[in-house]
Amino acid sequence: MATQPEQLRVAAPAKINLFLHVTRKRPDGYHDLQSLVAFADIGDVLTLERAPALSLVIDGPFAQGLEAEADNLVLRAARAIAQRRPTVEGARIRLTKNLPVASGIGGGSADAAAALRGLPALYGERFPAEELLAVAAALGSDIPVCVASQTAWMEGRGERVTPLPCLPPAHIVLVNPGLSVATADVFRRLTIRADEAALSRPAAFASLDALVGYLKTTRNDLEAPALAIAPAIGSVLEALAQQGAAFVRMSGSGATCFGLFETAAKAQAAAAIIAQAEPHWWAHAGMFTDEDAARPREAT
Predict the structure, then answer these.
(1) Would residue 216 show up in a list of annotated catalytic residues for this protein?
(2) 7-164: what fold?
């Protein structure tokens, strides 16, 4: 029998809402939505080491933004796993926070999902997908789609996730203007479109042009209310467009925006130019990724 690793490394990729339609407010206070979600090879990292108790330390460029949190989502996710599997004792968890906090790219949700993937793997426990998704949904609306961290169609309040074929190769630039935007504040300003028909799930996209053509028929309903709160989002969208992006949009509830580019060279040049022009902005180039990138791996 293979021995279990003492330490695992789990990537927590950035979540990108390529579009986000909000269809109605539900009686439970949540909103129904539809979204095509992709993941980038830019993100946070969790390192988990077996230990008799559960602990968390946070480092990385955006660690300071989480210092005031008394109960991080990562700890809540880890406790949820331990409560369901008595063989799971604890772990020393290190969260390297590379993504801006409260920035519309699912950083906290991706971190929690990484803990949900990593802790069972550390102890050799198997979770049926349905059980893991139920645990994720109880923790937060964005967490279920981050569990697999693969291209997906997201519905309901976020708990209904349907995997989709991988997207065509595309290079992405993520830019945040150094702002955190509270999701609750954005939703409070939202005007919902009444009686709008739901979209059907798309088939596979043959090319980046096909994906861009489809995205141009969609929108992010949270972009306008987020812009009212943080007008700098408009400057980010303009900067990405000026660098020749094939498509630009805000992700999630903001303030991070993305641009799609045909080549790595164009994406890297765009990110470098934007970062030089606006030193206080966060700008990074990457690619769409798939679920393999999010699988726990033995730390070296």
Answers:
(1) no
(2) Ribosomal Protein S5; domain 2 (3.30.230)
Q: Backbone phi, then psi, for 189, in 5-degree steps?
A: -95, 0
**For residue range 20-38, what is the model confidence (pLDDT) as tens digits?**
999 888 888 788 899 999 9
Q: Which of 44, 111, 142, 221 is catalytic?
A: 142
Q: Is 15 a catalytic residue?
A: yes
DSSP 188-234: HT--PPTTPPPPPPP---SSHHHHHHHHTT--BTTHHHHHHH-THHH
Exactly one of 15, 97, 111, 221 is catalytic; which is it? Answer: 15
Q: What phi and psi values does residue 103 have, to the nearest 5 degrees?
A: -120, 10
Cα atoms found within 13 Å of the Cα of residue 274, Cβ hemisphere only: 31
Q: Supply the pLDDT for residue 194.
A: 61
Using CA atoms, how far apart are residues 227 and 239, in angstroms rounded to an integer? 15
- Is the CATH number of domain 171-287 3.30.70.100? no
| pLDDT tens digits, 204-256 | 899 999 999 999 999 999 999 999 999 999 999 999 999 999 999 999 999 99
Each domain of the chain, given as residue ranges in start order, spans: 7-164, 171-287
User: What contacts 231, CB < 8 A, 6 or more positions away?
Assistant: none
Q: pTM above the 0.90 mark?
A: yes
98 near 277, Cβ under 8 Å?
no
Nearest to 124 by CA among 5, 299, 297: 5
